[in-house]
Amino acid sequence: RERRALRHAGPQAGSRQVFAIMFPDLFLDILFTTLKKEMPMRVLVVNAGSSSLKSQLIETDGKVTLMKCLAEKVGTPSAFMNVSFAPDFQKTTYNVADMPVQECLAKLLDILVDDPESPISSLSQIDAIGNRVVAGGEYFTRSVIIDEAVREKLAICEELAPLHNPPADACIDLMREAMPNTPQVAVFDTAFHATMPAKAYMYPLPREYYEKYRIRRYGAHGTSHRYAAQQAANLLGRPLRDLGLITCHLGNGGSITAVNHGKSIDTSMGFTPLEGLMMGTRSGSIDPAIVTYLMRREHKSFDEMDAILNKESGILGVSGVSADMRDVLAAAAAGNELADLAIDMYVYLIQKAIGGYYAAMTRTDAVVMTAGIGENSAELRERIFAGLAHMGMILDHERNDVTGQIGVNRIISIDDSPIKICVVTTDEEVRIARETDNLVGQLHE
Length: 445
Ligand code: ADP
Description:
The protein is of the alpha/beta class. The chain has helices at about 1-5, 15-20, 25-40, 100-115, 150-155, 165-180, 200, 205-215, 220-235, 290-300, 300-310, 315-320, 325-335, 335-360, 370-375, 380-385, 395-400, 430-445; strands at about 40-50, 55-60, 65-70, 80-85, 90-95, 130-135, 145, 185-190, 245-250, 255-260, 265, 365-370, 410, 420-425.
């Protein structure tokens, strides 16, 4: 393509032509890099979870989404997969009962090639694949192109996020088979937290466990915290490096990060994404003695205990209603006391975490709310910040209202609030696509 472009450069190219004749290799290099930058890259983003698969085909140039896919309840008899294409994103639902996540992805590839509404008719029209990987351990402090050595290290990282990493790895393997010549990138949730100091990432355990097993805090939701911090800096109109921000990712999973001068200095998720806040089905931090006590009293196996803490606790465990905050809010409004208690606990633990990170920073300019609950629930934000006004985080009730504001990044504190409160819409898939584009683009430079 670049040779053709050169041939057609024409007489108007002038000095460029002279340069091309004198230094043909250098000219081609520069031309190719320029063309590459100008060519939109189509990235298939794969975000595989324990029971879900999210995927988007994104043209990174204008951040245009061409296809969206969401499979839920993956691995169960009631699993289904919604796929939709630009421009109108009319969903078609497919039955993916009992299929593991990589089979759902294989089905999506077939749909991408066969569906007349799909913008592509061959997998070769996908330029790169961006995979979300939850845990990168100490091996990965930034996104990487996946090669054999990286794949081996990914396998070692599986035990750090046993619910999330194995399905992501299974999808990476499937794509390596289906599209062996297409570059794949791994974007890690942990990478943003690589800047934490040892006092934040070490646990007060005998040192040998760090040395033998690298047991330490890794954190998670890194791409979301990084993005939320940058968007908040844009809202505040100041460079990120001058700011102290507390970013709150509150979705099914939840974590809070202290972002001091643009760097993560501490975060609530730990060795695994189980630590920290109370979440949809995860307990978050509890007295570790409860684990051994329960295992002894109830004769629970390691796997059973893992399931209790990861899948049966949190908002679901306390409310007995649902892991979904919308259901629990509705149940509480209808008078369910356990649902109300679950929300009270959820709010209180977030308030304490924000207070803790305030103490960890050298300055706090803003608290940033993002992800499903953080972005959409005015009620939860009211309840959280009602307890934090004395710390200088003062909500403006009208600005907090969501009517007509869903998806709008904005400041929701009063003008005189010493610490601002921001709402930022997270779009994990777009961020993964852009990281992938950057890395794959460098391959050609
Ligand atoms: P995931 O971690 O799966 O990406 P999300 O960021 O989509 O999760 O967040 C899902 C959570 O957000 C669910 O608990 C859902 O109930 C909650 N949520 C979404 N919209 C609202 C809303 N309007 N009010 C309260 N909670 C909401």
